[in-house]
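User: I'm putting together notes for a lab meeting next week and I want to include a structural view of one of the chains we've been expressing. I don't have a solved structure, so I'd like a prediction I can at least talk through. The sequence is below, exactly as it appears in our construct file.
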Amino acid sequence: MNAILQPHQHFNKVDFKPKDYKDEKTPSFWCAGCGHYGVLTGLLRALAELGVDPNHLVSVSGIGCSSRLPYFVNSYKMHTLHGRAGPVATGVHLARPDLAVVVTGGDGDGFSIGGGHMPHLARKNINITYILMDNHVYGLTKGQCSPTSREEMKAAVTPYGGMEEPLDPILYMLTYGATYVAQAFAGNAKLGAQLIKEGMEHKGFSFINLLSQCPSFNELDTALSFRSACDQVDTAHDISDRNAAMQVVNKAKQEGRIPTGLLYKSERPALHERMAELVKRVGGTKDYDLRKIIDLARP
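Assistant: Thanks for the context. Below is the predicted structure for the 299-residue chain, given as structure tokens.
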């Protein structure tokens, strides 16, 4: 019943290069041309720029092609159940808020079976970084439509195209109150690394949507189509204005464009800070006893 709840700390710094964060024991086995390689490159660069000690890094994922990413990172890692990376990462963070926790998963893992968890990660403002590798298709199961697939995409079980309106992860997370929301094309590893780095430095729930091509099962959303449709957010954009961020996304959608960069950022207490305050209220320490909290709540 006991748990350790420490105040937010900066990462322990090490002088590593991106290649030092690559787990060489497990070679990457994504398809040739997969955009996930770009996501991995961006993450490794961000970790090197931050100087995160691999001993203080936890990489968590669900199920899918994208969810294999923790295998390739030099860190503690958890390859969990389909759609359940968020709750597992929440538990890791609350038990050890001094650690850097990164979640990686796909559009199906995050917004289909895992979709019920996403609003709560955002509203609770869990101090983790969630990297969504969005390729608009279920790749590991050989090409079914995902929640973000375009209606005109013909897939294995939908030969006449999709029957459902595609979900927009950025609008979704803005609506539910994520305090850091950004987007980039996976092939732009420089921008991806910058957004991941800033997201990991942010205190609160960071959501980064990385558009990643699937050359094996998605012929519509290619690397070329993603790259040509992406526009950097105007420097005059007010990142503290959530309504403005939604307007940027909606305007881009109407024009068939994709906004990239930091769209929204705000500051409010993270869940581990609220929990620490609760511990103080019951007269506890960082080694608090959950029984005391339960007893206090009883009438």
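A couple of points you could mention at the meeting. The first strand starts at residue 2 and ends at 4. The first helix runs from residue 36 to 50.

User: Perfect, that's what I needed.
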